[in-house]
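Weekly modeling sync, notes
Attendees: AB, CL, MP (scribe)

Item 1: holo prediction request
CL wants a bound-state model with calcium ion before deciding which constructs to order. AB pointed out that an apo prediction alone won't tell us much about the pocket. Agreed to run with the ligand included and paste results into these notes for async review.

Input as submitted:
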Amino acid sequence: MNKCQVLIVEDDPPIRNLIATTLKTHDYKYLLAKNGEEAILQASTYSPDVVFLDLGLPDIDGVEIIKKIREWSNMPIIIISARSEDEDKIEALDSGADDYLTKPFSVEELLARLRVMQRRISLLQSDDEMGEKSVYTNGKLRIEYAAGCAYNGDEELKLTPIEYKLLCLLAQNTGKVLTHKYITQKIWGSVWDSNVASLRVFMATLRKKLEDENVSYIQTHIGIGYRMLKV
Ligand code: CA
């Protein structure tokens, strides 16, 4: 039996059943909630390892549920949204959700998202054991925080201060989608449209220095933001 326990929050019975059956087939334990009230109750009672949260629920808005859970827990939350809820999806990520699935989704995609969260959980646990990590590694990428340097293998990356800040922010949130708004707020302290345009430019130069045809660390989510992948 998989140790990971997943809370499924979805008011649509066929989708709820699809997710439950998929998880059961792959030996995950799961809890079910068909509305927001049940979701908050289950989350606070059982502290699941991961939450799949439908944004469109009959009683409480999904974004409100995220805010509530974030008052007391960092449990990974993966949003399940319909395409028409794109705006809400961005708001949900900014409110502290970790990732999203867009309906209709495949079960393979669902399982892949779940595995990413499980890796994050184990990374977080090992971080706790080792205290604050001063070196980040991901494939050939290495960041030495104390020195303020990043390396690709043995070669030091010549990054501008903004590029370095961007890289650290993405690295510290590996596996997690960061929205344009979240990133610009962290990097520049404000969310002007011009910053979002600058962000695209800095991201392009950063990727050019970091990536080549064999390796891609940063994934673009068009209209939403960026994610550092664990390679
Ligand atoms: Ca729904």
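Recorded for review: Helices lie at 13-25, 36-46, 62-70, 86-94, 107-130, 161-172, 180-188, 193-210.
Action items: CL to compare against the apo run; MP to circulate these notes.
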